[in-house]
Amino acid sequence: MTLVAGVDSSTQSCKVVVRDLASGEQVRSGRASHPDGTSVDPNAWWTALRAAIADAGGLADVAAVSIAGQQHGMVVLDTNGEVIRDALLWNDTRSAGAAADLIAEFGARDLAQRTGLVPVASFTITKLRWLRDAEPENAARVAAVALPHDWLTWRLRGYGPRGSSPLGPVLEELVTDRSDASGTGYWNPVSGEYDRALLTAALGRDAILPRVLGPGDRAGEVHAENGTSAVMGPGAGDNAGAALGLGLGEGDSVISIGTSGTAFASTPGVVRDVTGTVAGFADAAGRYLPLVATLNAARVLDAVARLLDVDHSALGSLALEGTPGAGGAVLVPYFEGERTPNLPNATASISGLTLANTTRANLARLAIEGMLCGLADGIDALGTLGVSTRRVRLIGGAAQNVAVQTIAGQVFDVPVEVPEPGEYVAMGAAVQAGWVLEGAAPSWAIAITATPAHDPRPEIREHYAVARDAVVAAS
Fold first, then answer.
1. Active site annotation includes 238
2. Using an 8 Å Cβ cutoff, are 432 and 468 in contact?
């Protein structure tokens, strides 16, 4: 039996899955937590990766491994390979002003043409501009810029700070893949080259950037000090990893409900949106991955569950007791600001409450409806750019909630499928590991465990749109 390993180094935790290359069957897995916050010391990820590998039984019998990770996080290194400051994560909005400055300097249309993106606070380019302006002494020390999965791949291969890693700070050995490079804001998804002028405009000068590998390219080997000499894949951004794990096909769109929410699809060509709503990312398989992201997803359910003093299961049961449309009550769930629409300073609001509809059941219901309506807007945004959706695949922890599934069947215009629960980002990384080992991506079957009734209730989204537009106009 040939084994391959995939890693998902996400915002909340590090997950490792070990799979049989031939069948795709999961043999074992491991997990370790990450610290909370929007600014995190990358060394905590390295500690968690090693702990998760140990929890998964180690890598001694694994032939290949690849790491997928949260996109956009800014990891800045000095000439000694030391991390200069905590990494600003995708959900850190302090660089919103820097995003506006870059758009003012270059223009949204030019930036979308050059990179497939219009900057928002999430992207690495804006974080580098913030670093230049807010912490010029730290910016002056930057010798290399990496992303979370780039840096972890580098560390697992034996590179790192001078004196504390076997191969030392060889910054030129940093590698990445096209999916994660496409989320920086200074990489061209058509030419496959970095836009050095944009990097310089952000940081104030040039720096070493990870070499961009193709989908089946080898990144090297795991250093023997880490328990194996397994081949390493190039890695991927988290959503690209999930797309690879799901075997995303033409006409499939994915709604992923995690810490953030995402709506994405696979397309043969790059998608450019000058409004910035849709990010024109590349994927991990040589295609493209237009994507809409929301900051507020499963945490919306967390907040309302706390308010009602119930767990997620009880929240779902309550929601199914409510009426579709929550009797006219609407939650616009911008608890942490929002990325889509780009309102970093917005807050959540409930409107349409009456004495009749203010019930525990309707409060539970409006939480799920508000979260899903924001993601359905993402599917609409993809459609306006010519991305056709014939079905939605619903993934993430919240996708297993029966109320979320049922209400999704009422919110979305197309049929909804719920694949079996799984760590799809880590699974995609394992697919990538198999690809570099065998020269072709393995094809592993995905079981569908739920197909909620397709029962569109357009009034839900109509009421939500009115409330959403009022919040946008007031922000």
1. yes
2. no
